[in-house]
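Hypothesis: this fold can be encoded by more than one sequence.
Test: take the structure tokens below, design a sequence, compare later.
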């Protein structure tokens, strides 16, 4: 009897298993509300972005509260999450190694013709990324109105320049990292866990540091239970109860 019961439970669990659908978000930038270019599956439909400044003087960060409502695996679903952008100073960076610093940096926006790029600093250095400065991106507070949502990875960002050349970055924390360089703008494909560290390693602060980060991309998986799961489970448990009573 026990063998048949376990087999029945296994069959019910397999029949009611949910399938995960992957949502690819692209092009998050510095801007607020409808001005943001954030898309899912190439569309802005169903997306809302609210930007707020967090932290204290000398350590201002930005949080982007994102809400997405759309059909996921045939079910109307709402996702809520935050993208926190923090500035760090004092990082030790080479082409393959990054030891993240402990200094507090002010997240600023590129203001030399590119108002959609994250940078670090204030005043004359607020429109660039200097050697040893790090931008940290963290996904927090992820929830789904149906099923469960899981953050997958950061998969893209754009190095946006407004002057100079030889803009250098190393992505990640630790050793064995990948470095990138460009004399202009560069779309970078990555595969990074949460959080994401983008570290500047520019040799000349007057020429090489005139760039920022924009067009952040990442993916989220949503597991939607099959509509018949609950009915199958209830029916199966009822059947097992009847069998036990008869025996």
């Amino acid at each position: 009897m026990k063998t048949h019961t376990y087999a029945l439970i296994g069959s019910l669990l397999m029949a009611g298993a949910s399938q995960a659908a992957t949502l690819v978000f692209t092009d998050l930038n510095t801007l607020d509300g409808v001005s943001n270019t954030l898309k899912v599956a190439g569309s802005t439909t169903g997306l809302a972005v609210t930007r707020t400044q967090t932290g204290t003087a000398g350590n201002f960060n930005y949080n982007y509260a994102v809400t997405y409502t759309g059909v996921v695996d045939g079910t109307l679903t709402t996702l809520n999450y935050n993208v926190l952008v923090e500035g760090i100073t004092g990082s030790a960076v080479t082409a393959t190694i990054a030891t993240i610093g402990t200094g507090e940096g002010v997240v600023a926006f590129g203001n030399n013709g590119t108002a959609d790029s994250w940078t670090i600093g204030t005043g004359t250095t607020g429109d660039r990324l200097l050697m040893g400065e790090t931008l940290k991106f963290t996904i927090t507070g992820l929830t789904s109105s149906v099923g469960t949502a899981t953050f997958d990875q950061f998969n893209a960002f754009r190095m946006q320049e407004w002057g100079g050349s030889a803009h250098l970055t190393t992505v990640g924390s630790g050793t064995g990292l990948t470095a990138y360089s460009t004399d202009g703008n560069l779309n970078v494909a990555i595969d990074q866990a949460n959080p994401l560290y983008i570290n500047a390693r520019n040799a000349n602060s007057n020429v090489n540091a005139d760039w920022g980060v924009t067009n952040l991309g990442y993916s989220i998986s949503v597991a939607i239970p099959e509509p018949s799961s609950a009915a199958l489970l209830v029916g199966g448990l009822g059947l097992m109860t009847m069998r036990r009573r008869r025996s």
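The CA atoms of residues 169 and 180 lie 5 Å apart. Confidence is low (pLDDT under 50) at residues 8-15.
Hypothesis status: open.
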